[in-house]
Amino acid sequence: MKAIILYLLSAILFFSCKKSSNNINTSATALLGKWVNAAQRLDTLDVYIENSKLIMFDNSLYLRTNYLAWINYDYFKREVKNIQDELIFVRPYKSNSGYIDNYFKWLTPNSKFEIQVQALHPERSALYNITYEKVQ
Q1: How many domains in the chain?
Q2: Any residues with CB less than 8 A from the CB of 32 and at least 6 apart, and which?
């Protein structure tokens, strides 16, 4: 009888513990907020958590003038998995594909970074980096 009570108490304790559904790597959470393109101040990058995933939304002139924005707004969103060793691992929003590594470097920790354009726009063939500064 004592064993059953002990088992039930253990089960209640186990199932009542709060479990975190946040599977975001802590290195990537420093990106949370609103960022502005240092070279084109009207282009912003919004980084937020949605459904326990870190999302980068490219709210740039490219989005606002692209016909794809009217067809599929999610096309301009990227899911971030991790940042490590000057790489950021991203994939298209709501995708089941694997994460692709792209160049990423903090220029000023938590306030200014440089990212390879393909992380946001994989369709572009040019290789260049974009610098973003935190505004919020």
Answers
A1: 1
A2: 47, 48, 49, 54
CA atoms of 40 and 100, how far apart (whole Å) = 26
Any domain includes 40 = yes
Please give the residue range of the domain that contains residue 130: 21-134
What does the chain come to in residues? 136
Phi/psi of residue 102, nearest 5 degrees: -135, 155
Domain annotation covers residue 7: no
* Helix, strand or coil, per DSSP, at residue 41: coil
2-47 residue pLDDT tens: 555 545 445 454 444 333 334 667 778 889 999 999 999 989 999 9
CATH number of the domain bearing residue 56 = 2.40.128
